[in-house]
Amino acid sequence: MSTALITGASSGIGKELAIALAARGHELxxxxxxxxxxxxxxxxxxTSHKVKxxxxxxxxxxxxxxxxxxxxxxxxxxxxxxxxxxxxxGTNARVVDExxxxxxxxxxxxxxxxxxxxxxxxxxxxxxKSGAVVNIASTASYQPVPGMAVYAATKSFVRSFxxxxxxxxxxxxxxxxVSPGATATEFFDVAGATPSTALASVSEVxxxxxxxxxxxxxxxxxxxxTRNRVLxxxxxxxxxxxxxxxxxxxxxxxx
Length: 255
Prior knowledge:
Blueprint: E1 3-7, H1 12-23, E2 27-32, H2 35-49, E3 53-57, H3 65-75, E4 82-85, H4 100-128, E5 131-136, H5 149-166, E6 173-179, H6 187-191, H7 202-214, E7 221-223, H8 226-237, H9 240-251
Helix pairs in contact: 1-2, 1-7, 3-4, 4-5
């Protein structure tokens, strides 16, 4: 029985992916800050799919939290076959107006924790030549985004890091980044932003992740949705100044 560890599992993509993987028979390790939501999800999953679910209520935006999570996972005798680094958040503000503590948490969660958990659990996958690491990036990773400068930069890092690690692992180990566009999750509420386009359903993202896990050789980076794939390509063709201005027109807060 394989085990999937999912961060940011209390809502949105993480929650729905947990349900989908449980339906396939995977045991689950669910991690997020909100213990009540994790416990409720675990109860529902166990009732519906009869799989083992372990819950760790942790704030992964704090330095050292990923090492503590690894310690607990190993102490409890778990082996991680699928790691999904889904936890992350963004803020919608001009850099001069950003809260420095919030930005530090954002960088730690979106980058530091993701990298550390990957390094923590990937070696065992490489040793047994099986396993998967799925890192959730964003279509914001394809161009600078005024108004969400830090978030877009962290997701650009996630995508680049994941693509590089894809090139390091042996056959049998899958490493890929998934870049959703605007999706119907709590993201915009947390960021304090208003989506500029219609929101895609979480199920679209889940389908892409599952397809990547099912593929023998998944691409290193996968964009969710045809429209998003086209826009990502266009952003690389048009002059950088134009791409920045267009992104800023959608997300830059008015003075």
